[in-house]
Amino acid sequence: MAFDGITIANVVKELQAALTGARIVKIAQPETDELLLTIKGTAGQYRLLISAGASLPLIYLTEKNKQAPMTAPGFCMLLRKHLQNGRIVDISQPGLERIVHINVEHLNEMGDLCRKKLIVEIMGKHSNIIFCDDKDMIIDSIKHVSGFVSSVREVLPGKPYFVADTTHKKNPMEAEEADFIETLLGAPMPVFKAFYTSYTGLSPLIAQELCARAGVDGERPAASDREALRRLFEAWSGMRDAIRAGAFSPCVAYTADKPVEFAAFPLTMYDGNGADSLKSFSSMSELLEEYYAEKNSITRIRQKSSDLRRIVQTALERNVKKYDLQLAQMKDTEKRDTYRIYGELLNTYGYGAEEGAKFLEALNYYTNEMITIPLDPTLSAGENAKKYFEKYGKLKRTYEALTELTKEVSEEIEHLRSISAFLDIAVGEEDLAQIKEELTQSGYIKKRGTGKKGKVAASKPFHYISSDGYDIYVGKNNLQNDELTFKVASGGDWWFHAKDYPGSHVIVKQKAGEEMPDTTFEEAARLAAYYSAGREQGKVEVDYIQKKHVKKPNGAKPGFVVYYTNYSMAIEADIQGMKQC
Questions:
Q1: Fewer CB within 10 A of the terminal residue: the chain, N end or C end?
Q2: How many of the other CB atoms lie within 10 Å of CB of 342?
Q3: Residue 44: which region, alpha, beta or left (left: phi > 0; alpha: psi -120 to 50)?
Q4: DSSP per residue over 138-179, as a string?
Q5: How crowded is residue 307: how many other Cβ atoms within 10 Å of its Cβ?
Q6: How does pLDDT run across 474-513, given as a tens digit for each residue?
Q7: Is 23 in a helix, a strand, or coil?
């Protein structure tokens, strides 16, 4: 799943064909590290998405638009000033580097024709979008990198742009057979690793693929077989010729309907070996948009939910520590009944205690066994009894108070764990807004302002249609769980929830006069298992019952319910193929 130099070469070919000669008519910065350029040419309008996100850097053509902020960031305003209505004259890739150069021609304030360069570096956490003049001096960048951050290269306005050679890798597009073989022979590592660590722009996946095409065991030592390295070079030469000719064939390898790898060329290593299918795409942009759409959304939401996660985690850790301390204090109260028995037996048999005695042997009439009662020799039997009753009374009060407190803290822990689980399944900002509202209601986030209460963005439950045509609704948070169970669901509807795990309430709307099929029961249970904290545990036990038997205790936390008679099934948390509306 590497966005390597070959993938960049495929993207650059597509950009050259679509955008060369076209004009940039709109520039937006939807995210702090992302640009969306709207470009018009003779063939129509295109949108170019460029992301320098540390976890998911991307560049591809898309038809989808994204909402831009009301006030454009400074970098976006700068690009609008210089590049708006500019004409793209060239798009290139230096060597096989993970870098794209977009050269733009525009008119300056004086009406003179000028050239600027937008440089996109797709390099993991070091990714960046850098704006330079025609002499490669940096005008600005979407991420500033000072000398305090990097001693190798500063990316700041006024600094010269260059690519730091920190890995000393060779350009595979210029490799000759003899040098190729000698380079890999001198690498004390497996063949596939020697290949991608010696040459730039190659990923481990492509190295393994080329070994498979050459009939070479990629795990064998690189220095073990000169003939194997010759065959590997021939396989690379064939791929290199295809790169130069722009003859790409983007594809994705799928296992159990889930994409596992993608590449700019067919992955023959997966044919009948570890993948259920290979899907071809007409363009790399189409592939990347489909492959990364869900992943990009999840990544963005996780970034936006970081503050909420920190609040929940801090509160959870604090409550767990409090709970552990309370349990330790509860353990200290276990001797309370022993002290009560000592007091009672001293009142009964204390007349037999000698003055100054340190203990008294007496018959415990509860167990009919002899026990030894420790005594304070400076006190009488009656005074010792009184002392034991006082200890008993104190420990009893402590036990009763702790019993209530531990119950409250335990419920608070379960509530926080449920919120943490729902942060994992949030898919939009409106979902986070509702979770934030719940945290505010629970006192974990302070209410701001004294004016009217702001309206929480509308977040709707997941809606699925079973294979038998039944509507299934899944709560995304505790507030939605309450809404679904006690306002949306009717008494005869079926209610599902993962047993012993925080998660979603799942409601299946009953059809009048029909008995719900077994397949719908199973599909609803799969949804309850999937949208729970137990989704990674293989099979999950799911409780289900008609909604009329589900109750909410007075004063209970959001999402908390009780039920006493139910059915259960153990089922896998697999919702592949289920139809979502």
A1: C
A2: 25
A3: left
A4: EEEESS-B-TTT-SS--B-TTSBP----SS--B-GGG--HHH
A5: 11
A6: 999 999 999 999 999 999 999 999 999 999 999 999 998 8
A7: strand
